[in-house]
Input
Amino acid sequence: MRDAERYAARRWHGLILLGLALALLAARAAQLQLASLELRQQAERNTIRQVEVIPPRGTLRDRKERLWVSNVPFFNVFFTPKEASRLDTLALAQWLQIPLPILAQRLTQAHQYSRTKPSLIARYVSLARYAPLLENQWCQTGFSAQVLNTRRYIYSAGAAFLGYLNEVTPAEIAAAPGKYTLGNLIGRSGIERQYESLLAGRKGYRFVVVDAWGRELYPYQEGKHDIPPVRGLDLVLTVDAELQQFAESLFYGKVGALVAIEPSTGEILCAVSSPTYDPNRLAGENVSVEWAKLNKAPHLPLYNRAIQGLYPPGSTFKLLNALIALQESTLTPAAVYPCAGGFVRNQGKPACHAHPAPLDLVGAIQHSCNAYFASVFVDLLHHPKYESVYKAYQQWREYLLYLGVGRRLGVDIPGEKPGNLPKPDAYDRIYGKKRWNAFTILSNSIGQGEVLMTPLQMANTMCLIANRGYYIQPHFLRYVYLQPHKQVTYFDTLWAPIDRRYFDAIIEGMRLAVEAGTGYTAYVPGLGLCGKTGTAQNPHGADHSVFVGFAPYDNPKIALAVIVENGGWGASWAAPIASLVVEKYLTGQVSRPQLLAYVKNTALVTP
Output
């Protein structure tokens, strides 16, 4: 009996242990099921977010590879209503430094726009302002940020050609699907706009898992689907930043422009449009406000006079008329014309100033004789070799187009104006068909007629004369930084149909004009500056002061044009400014400190 009892007891104990084991297994299974459900619910609350990664924009350097335009990182802050569970608008306004009523309005607009799509509520937020929001994401949900770079200008110069950045418009987003999204920056003018495709790089994307509060948890599938961004290219410009600053300082209190070009390459060494502004004003969150202020400012600082200003070339145009007449064999360098204080064949008009007379071509350039070049123009258009004045004018106009007048030169920033070079039909409409001749349009003989040129065109004609018959398209881009042999664009060499030998007399006259003629205020011993002054009549006020030239005489390294609006004689302001810029560029210093101080400190208009 005892054995049977012991067996029964062991069996009972076994059943109890088995029951306990089954109970434990059941409990664990229930726990796993509940945990799995919780994990599943948590996973369902997690989502995969595509995060746009904006690459740093390419920087800009000057011709000596000095950093000029760099990047400053900022954040655009977005709000997605559906992801928001807690919202402390007062704290948020303090962190982002946005007035509470404005922030509340933006949050309301975000709800109205879409509950599931992000809305931009704050632009250009610095890291210091964004950090508190980042630290408090656990209690301020629904917010995300996009890193972007705005510009910082180390040299506060060159605003007119560097351009600026601004946010893309809805129309631009729609026109380029996938390329831009809300808040992205785009080049609006100048170099920034011209070379947008090189500077902007290519955006990338990160795919991350975020929780219900919008917090990033981990990369989706360890980042294997991520698309890395491609940084923008760093560009080296042709402009000398220090020369640009120096040239701009000479235009204090003056309205006008200056363009300087290296004749052998077409590289623009500096390009001034005055008045100008610190380019840092159009960088950051106040772009729209500052742009509106500049747009209403006196003398239009946003207007790039260097490539858009249209001016009568004045007496500087005599050089081109002489070249055309020499090539057409209606003039020889030895030809002498009388001057009796004016053009005798037209009742003394145009009038002329006192100078030695009669003069040959070199002397006429040296002393800028109006009567001489009026004779050259009349004898060209009325020469018996042409069927009519109409045909002669067509030929004259064709030459000027080759010389870069009356058409765009193709400079590599947007907005260039072609100038004005009337077709014969234009004079038919003004005076009647076959009812005009050289005397009718005689003002064109001395650059005071209907012909208008940009300062860029004037400087370019100096390159053509310095090179004795050709020029290379003027341009601002030199090469890609650290890749000097990588050519990203090509610039044409253009030849004028004028024999090389005809440039000798023109250049000699320009040399004498500076050494002992109308351009004497530009003379610096040993500089070898050749030039021509101009006094361009202006129907809206005092005459414009004009000077064009190049240096040195025997191996030209710089050609330039200077316009000072309402500055009077070319020798008064344009010639001294030109000589200071040329001397600074060629020698690195200025030998006339008194002249420098006078030019820099004298204002012709209220600064």
Residues 281 and 290 are 6 Å apart (CA to CA).
